[in-house]
Amino acid sequence: MTPDLSALVDSIVARMGAAEDRGQVASYIPELAKVDPAQFGIAIATADGRMLTGGDADTSFSIQSISKVFALTLALGKVGDQLWQRVGREPSGNAFNSIVQLEQEHGIPRNPFINAGAIVVADVNLGGHQPRVAIGEMLRFVRYLSGDDSIAINEDVAASETTTGFRNMALANYMRAFGNVRHPVDLVLGTYFHQCAIEMSCRQLALAGRYLMLDGRHPDGGRVVSPGRARRINALMLTCGHYDASGDFAFRVGIPGKSGVGGGILAIVPGRAAIAVWCPGLNDNGNSMLGTQALQMLAEATGWSVFSAP
Ligand code: GLN
């Protein structure tokens, strides 16, 4: 029997508000270093159409790597399973921005959720067009998923990453040498940095994640992806969504989740809920410290898990 979700959300907000160790905000993207670490938000969209929110649930933040879920969904729509010739499906066991496996693995990134994999996905989404076309498509897609046309890109964050994204430039150039990035690197990174700079609130993000709890259906009745594809995207979120802490996240929380260095996490309980949490301070693996704790608290109290009977 599910406990009173609204009371649970309130107690999570109270607990997270009182937490002393909040981690560190990302500083390698200068714009993100300006974000106030005291903020915390949570939103839960349930399969029966309810929305529960708490804390700063309507404050927009940089979704960063959470965008990799939406970019992957679009790329699979364009090239289908051919994508897997260019990107793997294994957890990397390395940091999100690591380059070390690319040499031995001939420029094929381990999965679509580490930076190298997301850069290949951005190359696919570019599809011979200008970055503004691919970025426009991505923005329309997240607006459609969440039913909210106010979602926008923070150009200052995109510019900040464009001037400091040396590791991503290295990854993209390295994969271009193997022929696994096919467009000019500046166009691919322009696409990637702008998708990362999309700003959404927890409410908007939870709404956007509903197709992944509904076997690929949009709540308006439309189909976003097939049930099999939704299941596989969830599988990748569980195994790869938190980089080298994906195992720990599965152990502690037990549901698919995708984090971003802006401090957000999108988590999916198939058939039950799409959840977004946000707290800007990160742990050593670059995942939201209190966001993870909040999801653990929620999963323990509700019993939500992909590893136990419903
Ligand atoms: N834009 C960020 C980067 O490429 C995204 C990383 C993340 O959110 N983990 O470094």
TrEMBL record:
SUPFAM superfamilies: beta-lactamase/transpeptidase-like. InterPro entries: Beta-lactam/transpept-like (IPR012338), Glutaminase (IPR015868). Substrate binds at S65, N115, E161, N168, Y192, Y243, V261. Coiled coil: none annotated. Pfam families: Glutaminase. It catalyses: L-glutamine + H2O = L-glutamate + NH4(+). Keywords: Acetylation, Hydrolase. PANTHER family: GLUTAMINASE. HAMAP family: Glutaminase. Homotetramer. This is Glutaminase.
